[in-house]
Amino acid sequence: MAQKIESSLKNMVISLLVITLVAGLSLGFVQQVTKEPIANSKQQKQIEAISAVVPEFNNNPLERPLPQPVFIDEVKECTVYTAIKDSVVVGYAILATSSGFGGDVELMVGFTPDGKIYNTSVVSHQETPGLGDKMTTEKFRSQFIGFDNKTQKARVKKDGGDVDALTAATISSRAFCSAINKAYRAFCVVTKDESGHDAESGATKHNN
User: Fold this and answer.
1) Is the dihedral of CA 76, 109, 184, 113 positive or negative?
2) Which residue has the higher pLDDT, 41 or 191?
3) Reduced to 3 states, what is the DSSP secondary structure of residue 29?
């Protein structure tokens, strides 16, 4: 009887090892097969987000020149993508993150070479449906088209700025503006614009 129990336990252990091995190999195979399509899908979404905020370009902003990380504060960094058409820089798409009411707000901000905002796109957010999530609407975002941080303040009017806040969603509006300001400061660093106006503090920034 003892020998039978020992034999059953041994068979069980062997079976579990075989199942674990097969499962591991299967997962590895599936991961390898799906790795490239997932990467291509992610790259395509990035290109689409960039295309939505800058003038037409014919380079690949994800390759050359390489995306440039710019640290704006100690926690978050902005990523700058350069859009080029026929060897001429037509714009910069800058990915910036700020803290909203429900979590991080990730914004793609497009600038023309003179520093004006061409367009914006909300990449991700966790804001309240029907309130803060209205930052994704064209009605709210359209006020930033042509926005010039050198002469305008990317702050809500309640805070002395030039931006109409979303109704009952001031925190979300402030998060959007904060991302705009971070993106602009990154633009100044990358383009070495030493006369860039810091709309958040009202001061003139000088980049070394």
Assistant:
1) positive
2) 191
3) helix
